[in-house]
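Is this the right way to post structure tokens for a design question? Let me know if I should format differently. Anyway, here goes:
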């Protein structure tokens, strides 16, 4: 479970880096629910670095 969430966060944070379609990279900031609905992740920015923090798990 934790590894799948870590993988999701890694993919989420790498997509804006490699895609020129994103004109506003800060659009990913906020709380997001992963596709399965089993977790919510808060994406925040500090300087030029984005961080993801798990803020809710359906089953801890």
């Amino acid at each position: 479970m934790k590894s799948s969430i870590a993988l999701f966060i890694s993919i989420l944070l790498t997509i804006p880096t490699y895609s020129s379609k994103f004109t506003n990279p800060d659009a990913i900031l906020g709380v997001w629910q992963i596709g399965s609905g089993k977790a919510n992740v808060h994406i925040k920015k500090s300087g030029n670095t984005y961080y993801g923090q798990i803020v809710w798990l359906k089953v801890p």
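Format looks fine. Someone answered above. Worth noting: The two ends are 9 Å apart (CA to CA). The helical segments are 2-18.
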